[in-house]
Amino acid sequence: MLYLDTRVKGTKINNTTGKAVVMKHKEYVTGVVTGVLAATLAAGGLNYVHQNQSGSVLADSAHVEKVEYLEKLIDQEYLGDVDQDKLAEGIYAGLIYGLGDVYSRYYTAEEYAQETATTDGSYVGIGVSIQKNKNGGVQIAECYEGGSGKKAGLIVGDVITAIDDTDVTDMELSEVVSLIKENKDKNIVLTVQREDEETPLQITVEVTDVELPAVFSEMLDDETGYIQITQFTGVAPQQYKDAFVDLKQKGMQKLVVDLRDNPGGLLTSVCEILRDILPEGLIVYTEDKDGNREEETCDGKNELHMPLAVLVNESSASASEIFAGAVQDYGIGKIVGTTTYGKGVVQELRQLHDGSAVKLTVSNYYTPKGNSINKVGIKPDIEVKLASELLNKTEISHEEDNQLQEALKTLQ
């Protein structure tokens, strides 16, 4: 999976996003070092480090001895409880962290399940995200519009303490996820503790396929359509197609695409959307460390034939920059806003045998004219900053959005 995204912070566990099987590390029963070496050398996708690279970390006995010493030190001196599995996960994460690349990362099985659901844009669940509650159970952190959870009456802040007859107060998030997922296409009864309610609520919710919205659209006037893409997920292309058809039926003759604050997403996703916009030719190409080049192209059969403006800002990154760069290179629309983030590298996400995964930066990407935007960004054709009085507002109307108003002027 080729992946384009600027997010580098920790992820929030979604309540039913597990696409990978969560497995415990059975290798760790004899200690952290033994478990780490066995698991690392057996983890398909990492064993080449030891076999093919001279001077690798695992080939140096001094490194192994140092880890053994630290393990003994922890065993003898550390005051708190020690979770051997978490120590091992920390070593894996540290190996990738040592690259000094903010885009490369190691994921535990739980984190990988969340990551794939986020990038895919769909999962099996009840349309809410959850987090661990300090007093037991899991707390709802977000309810998605249109999800079965919200329809059933769940709200942010609710604490789930049981699912059907199973107490979940001491369960890990991954266990709660699995419990919900195994009831796909069925109704489950949640025992919910709600603030200001003395008696727990019993709420029946259907477990279904949930699709997260990534595309939002509306008509701004009788002939101008507006499509906002918040992330290039796996479901975004079809959502874009549906939005475009709907706007055309409503009389759209001009289009604004809003990519502000879009952190990126999947390479396949942005290219699929651009195939409904660009003329025949190159969309983007990538080159790896050995100079191997891969191209994404467009046949031009669905080229957009109407005035186009694309809104970007400093948080538009990766796949958003591929989109803006291609539109700008072909001159088929105006880029409006501020210079984009400047992420011109591609990551590959590989799952390992135990459900964990590693994301590594594997190539650079270039716009159709061969421009690299890494640490440079896309400079808009029309540069306009968001008005200072709007910077701290949580909601901005279209009328007061000076960047959008400038984009509309370019369509006249």
Largest sheet: 7 strands, antiparallel
Percentage of residues in helical conformation: 25-40%
Number of helices: 11
Mean pLDDT: 86
Uncertain stretches: 7-54
Gap between N and C termini? 40 Å
Please state the overall shape, judged from the principal axes of the Cα atoms: globular
Number of strands: 21
- Rg of Cα set: 24 Å
Helix vs. strand class:
alpha+beta
Strand content: 25-35%
Describe what this molecule looks like in 3D.
With 412 residues, the protein is α+β, with helices and mostly antiparallel strands. It has eleven helices and 21 strands. The strands form four sheets. Strands 1, 2, 14, 15, 16, 19 and 20 form a seven-stranded antiparallel β-sheet that branches. Strands 4, 5, 6, 7, 8 and 9 form a six-stranded antiparallel β-sheet that branches. β4 and β5 form a beta hairpin. α1 crosses α4, α8 packs parallel to α9 and α9 packs parallel to α10. The longest helix is centred in the first third of the chain and has 17 residues. It is globular and about 70 Å long. About 12% of the residues have low confidence.
What attributes characterize this protein structure?
alpha+beta, 11 helices, 7-stranded antiparallel β-sheet, 412 residues, 6-stranded antiparallel β-sheet, globular
Question: What order do the helices and strands come in, and which of them pair?
Answer:
Layout: E1 2-5, H1 32-42, H2 47-52, H3 61-77, H4 84-97, E2 105-107, H5 109-120, E3 122-125, E4 128-132, E5 138-143, H6 148-152, E6 159-163, E7 166-167, H7 173-181, E8 187-193, E9 201-206, E10 208-211, E11 215-219, E12 224-229, H8 236-249, E13 254-258, E14 264-266, H9 267-274, E15 281-288, E16 293-298, E17 308-312, H10 319-330, E18 334-337, E19 345-351, E20 357-366, E21 382-383, H11 402-410
Parallel strand pairs: 12-13, 13-17, 17-18, 18-21
Antiparallel strand pairs: 1-14, 1-19, 2-20, 3-10, 4-5, 5-6, 6-7, 6-8, 8-9, 11-12, 15-16, 15-20, 19-20
Helix pairs in contact: 1-4, 8-9, 9-10
